[in-house]
Amino acid sequence: MTRLARIALACLAVTAALPLAAQLRAPSVGAGPRLALPAPSAAPSTGSATRQADYIVAVVNSEPITNNEVRTRALRFQQQLSQQGGAVPSARELLSLTLTQLISERAQLQHARDIGIKVEEGAIDQAEASIAAQNQLEVAELRRRIQSEGLGLTQFRDDLRNQLLLQRLRERDFEARVRISDLEADQFLAEQRRNVDPSKAEINIAQILVAVPESATPAQVAELKAKAQQAYDRARTGADFTALVREFSNAPQAGPGGQMGMRPADRYPQLFVDAVKPLAVGAVAAPVQSGAGFHVLKLVERNQPSAVDSTVPEARVRHIL
Predict the structure, then answer these.
(1) Residue 42 has pLDDT above 70, yes or no
(2) What is the pTM of this model?
(3) Domains of the chain and CATH, by start
(4) 58: nearest Cα among 18, 93, 29, 21
(5) Which terminus of the chain has fewer CB atoms gathered within 10 Å of its CB, N or C?
(6) Those residues with Cβ within 8 angstroms of residue 99's Cβ, 6 or more apart along the chain or in another chain
(7) Collapsing DSSP states into helix, strand and coil, what is residue 56?
(8) Angle at Cα 273 formed by Cα 268 and Cα 275, nearest 5°?
């Protein structure tokens, strides 16, 4: 079997099972005809001389599972395991596992249809195109190869429909089980924000610098500190910061309104970053002192990566509330 066929068959395997709501009945052990698995190299034959008589081996509600269905699926699994180099269980064990899987799959499909889950033809076309793309083929070539390997196109699309039904059923069952409160969502998002590296934020700070000469006496330093405090008090009560910059600041090469420009936080002096860290945008920090003098700092802008990124987990978390 080619790699293409293995991929196609892999998409047909059932990978999850839900509790069975259906009533199942199967023949008791030793009763009636027994299942028989052909040799791995044997190809299914349509001739009446070589084909086993078909019969029902299990019933899921009113829907039968036949001997030929089990044998065909078991043969596929056996071929897959052989080609992948895996250990192949005994024929009896393989048939038992296959029958169990078919019963589970049939019950889940019935449940999906009962609760109104449907798969549109467009979704099947998309799944078919995806398999073709994975194998670097056009859809027409994929269909030709499937048919050349003995798997009917109608059966292939029916199997794709069933797998899409099962996938949607599992997704619906998962979403029905998940319940996240608003408090839990808020705690999760807060934790994500706390874990963000502050140095990755970009900030724009405006400053009023009241310069202190190196030769300043203690009295002069106190006077200049009082001047910076006066500028801070006026800014805090709503005075125009740009006007205060013109009145009080000695900062050289200041931008409009004393702004120093948008840049990563780690390109500002740590003294400035620490002063504005607790501020909301537009707020002003109390004067801080450096070797140059006293600084009154206003946080003009903050571009925190988590402020954008957090909307993604928030949408995902709250989507399933």
Answers:
(1) no
(2) 0.41
(3) 3-177 (1.10.4030.10), 178-195+308-321 (no CATH), 198-303 (3.10.50.40)
(4) 29
(5) C
(6) 26, 35, 57, 58, 65, 70
(7) strand
(8) 135
